[in-house]
Amino acid sequence: MRLLSWVVRLLVLVLLIAGIQSLWSNFRSGNWAPDWFGFGMEDQTETTHTIVLQEISAMGKLELVKYNFKDVVEREVVKTWLPNAKAVLIVQGEAIGCIDLTQVEIADISSEDETLVVNMPEPELCVFKIDHSKSKIYNTEFAFSEEGKLVEEAYKEAEKQILKSAQDMGILEQTKENARKILTPVLEKASGKKVVLKFPMNVKIDKLR
Question: CB-hemisphere CA count at 13 Å for 171?
């Protein structure tokens, strides 16, 4: 019995010494908490999402033409005493012309002998926006704490310029032409008749001076 007791004590002592050596080795290497204690393991990151559907919208707008723009925008704040704050941006954006087909009603379609006449809604500029992933700030000078506001204003001006440039370049007329090219053959094949697409006439009357 004494021999067995001595052997058990010896085993306990050996295991204790081995444990102390293991702790000391991990401490010296920077891993003071070994994996078998549940510490020292790399943390795991978990992400949860809670998505709420807020609105469902019927999409009836047919996109017919897209203009891509690239612009160098310089925005400057003129100061009385300090140097003028300035920001220079290289901006890319797009404008899309479309027609809202949900506005077409039965009353807008008439058939005359072998001709089908469709009164179309006015084309519109449904998208004009900056592509921030392709735009960048080229340079800023003396902006300091105003840099964020200066850049934001420059982007807003660039977006307005995209709208104006698209209109000046005739994107709405191009939308009409593309509508005729794309929709006419489809409707003619479906109806078996000649199809004429009619758009509202925009009559501009200059104001009397």
Answer: 25
Nearest to 154 by CA among 142, 139, 168: 139
CB count in 10 Å sphere of residue 150: 20
In this prediction the pTM is: 0.63
Per-residue pLDDT of 190-200, as tens digits, reads 888 898 898 98
Q: Per the domain annotation, does 88 fall within a domain?
A: yes
* Residues 9, 78 within the same domain: no
Domain count, the chain: 2
- Integer Cα distance of 32 and 19 in angstroms: 13
Are 90 and 25 members of one domain? no
H/E element holding 15? helix 2-28
The DSSP secondary-structure symbol of 207 reads P
The answer on 160 and 77 residing in a single domain is yes
Structural domain that includes position 24:
2-32
Element at 166 (helix H, strand E): helix 147-168
